[in-house]
């Protein structure tokens, strides 16, 4: 059994913001690989999540695997609460938990699969690590870049803006994509959905070899 959670914030206000790429990726996967009449999410209030369940049937195996798709309804900074509730309810090991999320450290439209490691400042991932008590789960990272521009250091020299120096990270991640970035974002959402499929078919080590090389 696998738990695939997309991180984001619930509500129309946040629907198309940078921070909601995780929601958009699991929604895309669900729509692409399930019959249209079976693509409804159900509210599981006791699990603080919207959930969809599919039985994934690998092309080269008679055995189906149950996959729990999750959109936490606890808001980004408390994502771990929902992931932990669902994982405990379905008895899913952290190594079988896949988390899809936006990533400031990757250029807009870039995509990487990673196992373990720190949260790198992502509050949603940080919450999941704290709730599970381990960082040993899979992350599907979708790049949203950082605000472009130069900064002037104390010595008067101009240097590129970085994640550590930008002052409005929260405003940036809660903002929407500009028109020039929308095609890249559509593609990275599509790539993430394909990576879910490939991982379920071939395993995530093979998925890393395929998708991280791009």
What's this, in brief?
By secondary structure, the protein is an alpha/beta fold.
Q: Descriptors for this entry?
A:
214 residues
How would you explain this protein's 3D organization?
The chain is an alpha/beta fold. It is 32% helix and 22% strand. It contains six helices and nine strands, in the order βαβββαββαβββααα. It has helices at 21-33, 79-90, 123-132, 169-173, 182-202, 204-211; strands at residues 2-6, 42-44, 49-56, 65-72, 97-103, 111-115, 138-143, 150-152, 158-160. The protein has a seven-stranded mixed sheet, sandwiched between helices. The chain has a two-stranded antiparallel sheet with strand order 8-9. Helix 5 packs antiparallel against helix 6 (204-211). The longest helix has 21 residues, at 182-202. The radius of gyration is 17 Å and the shape is globular. The two termini are 28 Å apart.
């Amino acid at each position: 059994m696998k738990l695939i959670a997309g991180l984001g914030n619930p509500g129309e206000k946040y629907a198309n913001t940078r921070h909601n790429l995780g929601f958009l990726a699991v929604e895309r996967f669900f729509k692409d690989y399930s019959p249209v009449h079976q693509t409804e999410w159900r509210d599981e209030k006791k699990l603080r999540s919207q959930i969809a369940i599919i039985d994934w049937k690998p092309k080269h195996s008679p055995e189906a695997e149950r996959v729990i798709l999750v959109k936490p309804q606890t808001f980004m900074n408390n994502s771990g609460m929902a992931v932990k509730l669902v994982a405990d309810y379905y008895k899913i090991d952290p190594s079988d938990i896949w988390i899809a999320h936006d990533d400031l450290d990757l250029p807009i439209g870039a995509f990487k699969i990673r196992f373990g490691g720190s949260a790198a400042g992502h509050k949603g991932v940080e919450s999941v690590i704290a709730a599970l008590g381990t960082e040993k789960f899979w992350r599907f990272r979708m790049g949203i870049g950082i605000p472009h521009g130069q900064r002037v250091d104390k010595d008067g020299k101009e240097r590129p803006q970085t994640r550590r120096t930008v002052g409005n990270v929260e405003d940036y991640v809660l903002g929407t994509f500009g028109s020039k970035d929308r095609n890249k974002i559509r593609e990275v959402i599509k790539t993430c959905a394909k990576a879910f499929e490939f991982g379920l078919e071939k395993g995530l080590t093979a998925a890393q070899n395929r998708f991280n090389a791009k």
